[in-house]
Amino acid sequence: xxxxEHFLSGGPNxxxxxxxxxxxxxxxxxxxxxxxxxxxxxxxxxQKYRARGRxxxxxxxxILKIVIITFQLVSFxxxxxxxxxxxxxxxxAFKHLFLKNYQDRNQDYALYTRHEVHDHILYxxxxxxxxxxxxxxxHAFERIDDVFTPLSICQDLYRxxxxxxxxxxxDIDPHVETGTSSxxxxxxxxxxxxxxKVCFAVFVPAELHYQLIVLxxxxxxxxxxxxxxxxxxxxxxxxxxxxxxxxxxVCWSERMEFINGWYxxxxxxxTLTIVGSALKICIQSKELTSYDVCSILxxxxxxxxxxxxxxxxxxxxxxxxxxxxxQAALPNxxxxxxxxxxxxxxxxxxxxxxxxxxxxxxRSFNMVANCLFSMINGDEIYSTFTKIRDKNDLVWMFSxxxxxxxxxxFTFMILSLFIALITDTYETIKHYQKHGAPxxxxxxxxxECKDPPKSGKNIVDEESSTFWCLCAPCVNCT
Length: 478
Prior knowledge:
Number of strands: 6
Shape: flat
Order of helices and strands: HHHHHHEEEEEEHHHHHHHHHH
Radius of gyration: 34 Å
Strand content: 5-15%
Number of helices: 16
Largest sheet: 2 strands, antiparallel
Helix content: 55-70%
């Protein structure tokens, strides 16, 4: 029995891989059939079509998905864009209507005296009462059960506060109390009948448009559900073959070849799309208003489905070289990034504590991280220097030493090493494409099968006992 047959029958030193009484040998024809099954499992969709005539439904479904999901995202994005634009424009209009002497160029709007506060509150109340006589657009009072909602003014105050300027002390109770005053409108307002006619004329096409959108979302959900089932089935079949091959010990990297990471990516994308589409239907029906959650789900799903389609580019080596380089360089990049993140965090903590009281970009830990990351790209360096120019000598000296060590370390050394890691991996991949990559034990075992896809030997009876004998070698098969 050859070493390759140990892959199926027993472990090293001829010890049986099964705890029960197993056969000492496996029929060579069964070994060849299993090798052919493994080769078929790792074939491309086109090779599988030539081998068994099985059409690449999964590939065609993924191409269809990328079209309809992208269309769904663009439609939702345009709707979301109009909603955000409408909201921002109305907020600006309300600021001009209710805030006294408001101007767009003023980012901060503050009141500093009691007289100003009282004056502005009265101004807001008067403008609110005259709202329908002032506005050009269709602004009106909100109604709940045919009752106008009152204007409410809320004020948050500490429960107790006592300030003593004489000895520069203060006593503040940290509990916050909220006081609310409501102003109810007594005058009854009536709308014209013409407004009802206009609303009714627009209502019918809007309802039809809503039904078409919901129907399209249901089509997206069904296609993603079908893709989810097919990809889950492929992953499950790979796990079954993995258990068969593990009758003889196989290293971890070869085990992972049976589990296609691209299918896992597509499964995640389909799950996010199904949940996001269901949430989108609820938003369209006015039952929910979770635009941000829906945007995150649909945006992430679309990103993953576009990346997942790149799986089919692996059959064209020149187009797939980017993914091969990233896959090969990822372990080294992760190990290198761990050390780089440790150094980056040390600079973040130091800058936050020392420069935080003296520079607005270092006021919080999050702002420090953003500022330092901008420095790596060449931004924020000059502004950081100029804003600390007038500080005391000790802080000024420390800021120079801090920045002069951080920028060269990350810009010239760490980033250059990142590029060197990826470049070295890229050259290795190009060398493998020209001269051939070393085969793993699993790949060498499969390579012993010399049958071309068109040989017809891959068309085997799925219900034959060969696969069962390999899955359960303890059964006495002939």
